[in-house]
## 1
Amino acid sequence: MPHEHDHTHGHDHHHSHDGHDHAHPHPHRPDQDDGLTDYQAMEIALRELLIEKGVLSAEEIRRAVEAMDARSPTDGARVVARAWTDPAFRARLLADGSAACAELGIDMGPTKLVVVENTAEVHNMVVCTLCSCYPRFLLGLPPDWYKSRAYRSRAVREPRAVLEEFGTHIPDRTTVRVHDSTADMRYLVLPRRPEGTEGWDEARLAALVGRDAMIGVALPRQP
Amino acid sequence: MTANDQLPARFRPGERVRVRGGTGPGHMRTPWYCRGHEGVIERICGFFGNPEELAYGRDGRPRRALYRVRFRQRDLWPDYAGPESDSIDIEIYDHWLDPAQGRENHAA
């Protein structure tokens, strides 16, 4: 899986039911009554052939999808909490992210993970301007905004304005460093450990680490 | 792995490089906004199949060196509003890079 492109070209239809609009607009996936896209048709054809030829079973495919959907930012938070409490692990994580995650039983597959560390001098944030590359093995599925054109174009052009909109103020004396995930690497931001957490164990620390802090658009929760 | 399987990395960390400009048909993973701009090699990420070949079902060989190149935001966007030290790291394949014109190597 060299890239995680989104090949679903979703349309935002404005439905008008019975001639009147809903007074309470809500986000929903558009119905796909208008046929399959080329990529959807290709996926179905490939899947059916793999099953027909006995390469994979439908059950195996279902299980793989279920396992992928079960991944969540708690895996990433576990990695961050370990790095906060174990300096040797932190060093290994910064040197080779994928290998360090494997130590915690998190299989990154073929993905090469680069971990970028926030310090007093540098704040890191991650974007994929070309598609929506994201460390799914570690954080689960990306949030919708991560895949939006607005985030993808503005994160590189005016990162500080984007951060402010997430409620994250980075002082001018701290460098904001954006990482554009354009090719074969995936990125995890290692946030700074909040003050006032001395002596906390890993589980308690991990509860402070949200998904957005590991993308770099937010900071960890304060104790 | 044959000798032709992988092209050597032409640049080292700290070297100043310029991203090739221009355009072409097909699938390219070098973002528009850094083409023609100069940055500094941050690290060599390893060697990977050429995405411009992989996109068309070919084997992507020989593999190419992939770098992380660090750019100053102010070099990419002349009207960039943030501090001078703000930067962006972008993954770029070897064949998109040339040595920079000037010889000065300053860290971004």
## 2
Amino acid sequence: MKRFSQLLVTLILKTSRNDKISVLSEYFKYTPDPDRGYALGALTRTLSFPGIKPTLLRTLVAEKIDQELFNLSYDYVGDLAETVSLIWPDTTPSKEKLPSITEFISDLEETSKTKLSSLISSFLDNANSDERWAMIKFATGGLRVGVSARLAKTSLAAYSGYLLEDIERVWHGLTPPYIGLFEWLDGKSDIPKIQHTRTFHPMMLANPLNTEKDFDRLDPNDFQAEWKWDGIRVQAVFDESSKRLFSRTGDDISRAFPDIVGELNGKAVLDGELLVGDNFKALPFNHLQQRLNRKSPTKIHLKNYPAFIRVYDMLFYNDDDIRDLPLQVRRQKLEDWMERVRNSRLDISEILVFDNWNRLAELRTEKADTLGHEGVMIKDLQSKYSAGRPKGPWFKWKRDPKFLDGVMMYAQRGHGRRSSFYSDYTFGIWQGNELVPVGKAYSGFTDEELVMLDKWVRNNTLNRFGPVREVRKELVVELAFDSAHESSRHKSGVALRFPRINRIRWDKPAQEADTIETIWSII
Amino acid sequence: MKIRYGEKSATSFQSMEFGKPLRINDVTIALHPAGHILGSAQVSIEYRGQRVVVTGDYKTIPDSSAQAFEIIKCDLFVTEATFGLPIFQHPSPHNEINNLLKSISKQPNRTHLVGVYSLGKAQRVMSLLREAGYDRPIFIHGALEKLCDYYSSEGINLGQLRKALVQDKETMKGAVVMAPPSALRDRWSRRLMDPIICQASGWMTIKQRAKRSGVELPLIISDHADWNELTSTIKATEADTIWVTHGREDAIVHWCKLNGKNAEPLRLQGRDEELEI
């Protein structure tokens, strides 16, 4: 744990990506198994201890320090692990050694629920504040030290000399402490074998199109275009006995969509957009949200919001890994396969016909409202299926945003770098004389603006509800959003899709913000 | 004051020695060292057997660049509370200076750019470095010059100081350079090659805060009392009534009440320095 805490402290303060990679590479190279594998699991969030919850830590702290003093401190710091680690009384250094990561884990796993709190308490007593911070982060998950799973894997590639691409391809078939992976990376064995029809394969993502730069150098004949659908990206992974559906981040969401999973047949890995609607006619996103909100659907949900996948790519065809074949070949194989299996829950994504970029620009907007898509995707016909977001082969070109002026109603603290700042805001618009909330926004402003917004929230608080502050209804913000939909979740009856702050209107009186009628005219 | 605020910052000046009382009608006023920076003072005010002590900024741990804090027993104690939360427990400054020295020896080719307030913190860090045996020249930003000269003239050992000039880029490789926090990410710092940004401040206790200000090597060195110093000083004054100002009043007020004292927050407009980093 000593070494791991030094690693985390170094990582959180490094700003340069290269520095982080070199610190991580060194750690992976010189730390023994299985410690390094568990550390990797913590960094990539594949390790979790469901028994250790924030409430457990709060209870422990309550035994050591006055509740009010703790609350004031937590409110100030904004991060539980950091608050507990700083406020925990330093005891005179005891003779007991800090456990290694591996000992720490086995102690946690072998201890009964009733004795867990005294175990953690003794761990914290034996540590200094950095070590306490690292242990709590490790045990509660979500390190927030500025290292993504991708960066951790990049560091594995850097220390071993293997390609990131190859690591990504086996990654989701492996689990902590990654003994087989490190054996391979150390050059002591072959690449670990994984069951490709049982595991998630990292997805290929698109970059936003830069209309000013990209079109000049791209030949429309080299690309295919499809609608960009407003659902969620999914991967269907199935063979005769196992059928699974994964979200973009690799979470298994099979149980929430038995209507799709039950119909999967054959052996393949498919990439597509999960949507709801009858006869492959997609309903707006808020309908899909009804399904996403629950772990398993009711009969009514299955009937009212039947799910389907609009398939746009194929990664495995039977047992063949076809990710290195060009997109147009993969597409051909996908069409053949779809033709053969005829699945009532799978629909192939339509290819748009265009011969110049201006025509595509017209397509992008012309059917947007009737079909309900959110723009177009443009993909290089020769592109391989590469994990991550490679620059060049795939682009997304979204519809232009819409705008409205909303009034800030509530504010909540952010996380990580933004903990201690009020950075998540709820906005409302006028319905008669009353403000009704239409959505939350937490992006679109600069760091300087964040400082000003935070200060404004603190100086204009009317009420506190736990972590939420109600503010004076005085600050107007121009919100950008992709579309607006009916919604029963909000009092206003409407919800905005991807709201973000476009401009802060310090100058504008709240009375001049937009009204509910403006939104209804957009829907 | 004249160096910091200008020759005409007051219409008339009257200097007072520490511990020598001044009587104005029925009121006796005296200044006592506050230990914050060189010459910083607490004010004790006595009237008909009742004594009020107003601390201003203070710290109680030893500092060779300032006079040592004195405990003055009183009836009403007006204390600052910049670090008035139990999360603020400053480590030993020597430990922090060692971290800086370790980093220098580990990365001898990189300039260590240390952000310091030009009055007090700069000279404290310099004298701590000298005490730890660091004898190479320290390069300084122009804003630090006059105040460093003044400290030296008062007999504080700051060692050899040199102005950080553009043409010295090569010489400053591996050296310690000090500048006010505002200059760390300003154009000024471009005269340095690949610097490691350090900052000496009590705020550096909170990692996310250090990260947000782009500090790679935080040095928790503060000229303000931490939680333990604040609470033990309040006890030692034996005052029954405590007024708390300047910072996180709520927690200190709460602590005072838990310990059987009368306490009130005394909020001064615009005096929260949270936004300074």
